Write the structure tokens for this entry.
Amino acid sequence: LDIPTNDRDPYTIHYSDHSEGEVQGTAKTLKVDLVIGADGANSRVAKAIDAGDYNYAIAFQERIRLPDHLMAYYEDLAEMYVGDDVSPDFYAWVFPKYDHVAVGTGTMKPNQARIKQLQAGIRARAAKRLEGGEIIKVEAHPIPEHPRPRRVRGRVALVGDAAGTVTKSSGEGIYFAAKSARMCAETIVETSNNGAIIPTEADLKLYLKRWDKKYGMTYKVLDILQTVFYRSDATREAFVEMCADRDVQKLTFDSYLYKTVVPANPLVQMKITAKTIGSMLRGHALAP
Ligand SMILES: Cc1cc2nc3c(=O)[nH]c(=O)nc-3n(C[C@H](O)[C@H](O)[C@H](O)COP(=O)(O)OP(=O)(O)OC[C@H]3O[C@@H](n4cnc5c(N)ncnc54)[C@H](O)[C@@H]3O)c2cc1C
């Protein structure tokens, strides 16, 4: 990406055109007024604009095709596993993916070297349910844990993993990648007056302002949840115990569904707070 030295000239993108299906590709260039970097956690666009680094977790996942009778178990449920054996600071999962399951785990950067051992941990925990399964794909990839310091620079905006829109606690990134791209595009359509003028850096930053206003609190709460509950086996016991509570279930379910931290009424909120404290105390007694 060649960046112009003023705010009028176009950006020049250098890319390989593979549209004819050839492996080699043809080197081409394209001049554009705006750039949206939607190129994932290892974003080249982010590097080009010196967007700054973020903390990231590393996730490892095996796609496993199960015999039919075992796949039936995952027809309408997904599994989340917690414990030091599967992740010291995140969770492990068995998620159904249409005709197979994804079995994986994630951990923060300092524990990266242990990722294979943690994967062995989740495989061991779910062993009975995965018996006779065939690995069809292995994936390992960073998951951003925070937004980049600079998500808009000049007439370049970052969206999705390139910007760092994955939520803590759940590690949900697909919805937020698509949503941030949509919000960015809508802001561009609006501030360009439907393409009549070229938006400025300030115009693109309007997308960030809207984003942070809509989701800032959700990110903050999920960040706190991860810090509090994923810290040790004792706090995880508390987390698991709390998830049995109907009010907590409603709160978290609504949050996942509507992508916002839905405030409960004050009475329910107080009950949840009391339960949290109780569970935290009991968790220390229950933890192995
Ligand atoms: C193992 C694992 C499991 C996950 N599970 C879930 C889950 O269950 N639910 C969930 O919501 N999220 C999950 N996530 C997170 C989710 O995958 C990401 O947050 C999401 O895919 C981000 O979308 P994106 O479009 O921003 O980036 P990406 O999906 O990474 O897409 C970026 C695209 O840009 C392309 N690209 C990159 N550089 C270039 C270049 N120089 N030139 C041309 N093309 C380029 C890449 O090939 C890629 O296609 C998981 C992540 C991992 C690693």
Summary: The chain has a mean pLDDT of 91. The pocket of flavin-adenine dinucleotide is lined by residues 38-40, 44, 59, 61, 95, 104, 139, 141, 143, 160-162, 166, 171-175, 177 (CB under 6 Å).
